[in-house]
Amino acid sequence: MTPVVNNDERLLLKQIAEGDEQAFAILFYRYLPVLQPFAIKFTKSADAAEEIIQDTFLRVWLNREKLESIENVKAWLYKFASNECLNYLRKELKEAKAIDNLGIDYPKQSNTTIDTINLNDINYLVSEAIDKLPGQRKKIYQMSRAEGMNIPEIAAALELSPNTIKNALVISLKTIREHLNRHGVVLSVLAYISLLE
Fold it and tell me: Burial of 101 by CB count in 10 Å (0-12 exposed, 13-18 middle, 19+ buried)?
């Protein structure tokens, strides 16, 4: 396959691999117009598409060390987005069956944006969600966020594989986001990613 990454994008990928958040934001906004319609077509829901985009770019960020070797960024992003779409549809089917079985009708949640929620309330909810994480997952998240350690450093300190650390962070971030969503707080993807820092 012919490489489709130009020099400008190659530099961008290198910067992201080194942890540059501004470069990551550029990549996000460059491919959002391509991935968002794809996710909406798949899910038939703008809210679900937003969640899928968030999860897609979270995985990109957590796998950023692989970016320099990527030859087709668009295809790589589509792969992540497709996986997230499939996960979403599986989850929806499972929940629909459970609701049918129990006859429960869940209340509609309001999509309160970050602009209308006091930042202190968000910080409190994030802290509350972190406190509820299981011991090791909580420790890994705090080493990443509070102590500024990267995945290899945490893996070495805890004598665990980098993949274990990465998975723990993904699960922790999803747990935090779901906790915020339950309280009516919907974060933008970049605000959500910043929970890593």
Answer: exposed
Q: How far apart are the first and last CA of the chain?
A: 36
Identify the H or E element spanning 85: helix 73-102
pLDDT per residue as tens digits for the range 76-107: 888 888 888 887 777 777 665 554 554 444 44
Average pLDDT, the chain: 75
Identify the CA nearest to 56 among candidates 82, 37, 33. Answer: 82
How far, in Å, CA of 113 to CA of 196, rounded?
Answer: 20
The amino acid at 153: E
In terms of pLDDT, which residue wins out, 19 or 105? 19
Find out whether 81 and 36 touch, Cβ atoms under 8 Å.
no
Give the count of beta carbons closer than 10 Å to the beta carbon of residue 86.
Answer: 12
**More confidently predicted of 105 and 131:** 131
Confidence of residue 110 (pLDDT cuts 50, 70, 90): very low
Q: In the structure encoding, which two tokens stand for residue 169, read together?
A: 């962070």
Question: Mind listing the domains of the chain with CATH numbers?
Answer: 1-106 (1.10.1740.10), 110-197 (1.10.10.10)
